[in-house]
Please model this.
Amino acid sequence: MVTTPLLPSDYLDLVSPLRAGADLRGRIEAVHPETADAATLVIRPGRGWRRHTAGQYVRIGVDVDGRRLWRAYSITSPTDRQDGRITITVKAIPDGQVSNHLVHRARPGTLIRLDQPTGDFVLPHAKPAKVLYLTAGSGITPVMGMLRDTEVDDVVLVHCAPQPQDVLFRDELHGLVADKKLRLTEVHTAMDGRLDVARLGELVPDWAERETWACGPAGLLDAAEEHWTDNGVRERLRTERFRPRIVVAGDGGAVTFSTTGKTVDADGATPLLDIGEEAGVLMPSGCRMGICFGCVTPLKAGAVRDLRTGEITEAEPGVLIQTCVSAAAGPCDIER
Amino acid sequence: MTAIDPTAHLTAEQIEELGRELDAIRDEVLAARGEQDAAYIRKVISAQRKLELASRGVLLFSIFPPAWLLGTAGLSVAKIMENMEIGHNVLHGQWDWMRDPKIHSTTWEWDHVSPSEQWKHSHNELHHTYTNVIGKDNDLGYGIMRVDEDQKWHPLHLGQPLWNLVNACFFEYGIAAYDLELGKNLHKRRRRNPEFRARAKAVGRKIRKQVLKDYVIHPLLSGPSFLTTLAATFTANLVRNIWSHSVIMCGHFPEGVQVFERRSVEGETRGQWYLRQMMGSANISGSRAMHFMTGNLSHQIEHHLFPDLPSNRYAEVAVKVRALFEKYELEYITGPLPKQVFSAWHKVFRLSLPNKKPKIKTPAREKELVAS
Model:
């Protein structure tokens, strides 16, 4: 009442953006380079932060060139870190707006938006006896979070990176090997070529007996799923993907965002989430790969295509669509 | 159009070329828009909130005259900033590109009795689309005044200088009534329309909240300063109303601004739409502080050409737009605030009387007539 039309929190945010009860934010406290194109960010989360489980990721909202962009990154710090800070390790990908900003331009002191940690790529409560981690590139990040958090008696890590200097956390990993806490095989793909998952047995003879966590590019994960399935041990494999598998694209159409009052042309391959964000529409977003349902939005008219399956969804009262994996299939109206 | 068409010398091709040149100006700003712009609006919002808090704090002791003066002045400025540079522009979607849900046209609510949702419709959709089109743009005299010779005279217009003064003092209520289209909707049949009733209720709720804050809670919190704080918040609202009314009058009412016939906008091209915005708006010249306090509506011409560009960019855009006016031999109407306010008021007085017959032509217009 006193502060109408604003809320008291709008004023409190001016002085204490990380307080309990505020929208969840974090402050970047330090940026440590890891490799030429990767860096670790130390983030002090706001008071509302709920402790994560090793292997989970967090979505962060960063202003890049004045524009709020949301991305998900695996948490690489252990859950029991004394100072309550968390770290994420970001690898700059070509044309990646957020990753390049975070690796090369992020400054300590910057406020970012946070979501609560989430993800089911985690170790079970009962510690497995034998573990295999199979990772490539920045796919090491959730696994690093697990390695730092939970000691398992028998752990093998097979990690792929183009060259030795591209291996994230290399010194720390070699330290673990020296302490006999980890067996590590590095596959340097620039020299040795891609890892042939079908021949994994040559590197890890007992791979099929191991509970496995795999994270990396789609090619690696697809091959792994096939290999584990073929050997009848699919239930031992857990994968974490960074991108949805896009299989089908069709014709696009004019997309109307009726709440905002904007209409833009969309092709049949670009997720509606990207189309809306580009047009300045306030789109809710989540994992950007079709798993978290943070982006669901009512479809008021028209039809959309699920980019993963090609399935067409037509507008009906109450129909919600995942904008991050849906593209226009003809003209449509999104309630945003 | 009024008497002479000041754009008659332009060919259809030139008008489309003008449109392309304006599109290019817009694209330049869109390409450059970024971190500094975002920092600007955040700084303004933060400064406004601090100024409002501080002023309201000082007013708790408004029983002491210096505190009253300081607090009232601060609150007036804060309220002007909130409505003009922040509210008006955020609600235009000028900052939507930042994708910050806290500074977005679909979530913003302003310190004003008209709910932002209704204002956005009547202002962004109707006024900005049909700028100065008689019968379509209700901003032309707000439905209570006659501001162009081509609008029909009615004996009620005799009182329009008085209506305008009252409207200036209670401008935010005038706008709320206008957004509700009260004039039209108070007819018996329409009054029952559920859609209108819902909107009227929303306005009622908004008024209640605003009044409660400014005229009940804040004075009560001031204890012994109750009455003086009440006077202070009333004064601040009055100052804000008169200020914004004056600025907005200067946007479309000064002499020389063109109005348009309904049929002239049928099938309008992009270039023609731009041209109508150019001829239908007027600027206010002045210092940077002056531009800031008008919410950069002093750059009314540029604002009407590019309503969704961030306001902090209008000053640089104005230089390029003005060059285009010269290139295409069009009159860029601008002047200091007192001159423009006088010009607008002069028109309100003049047009309160029926047109003199035959229509008086200014010498310049006569010359053009002869030439053509």
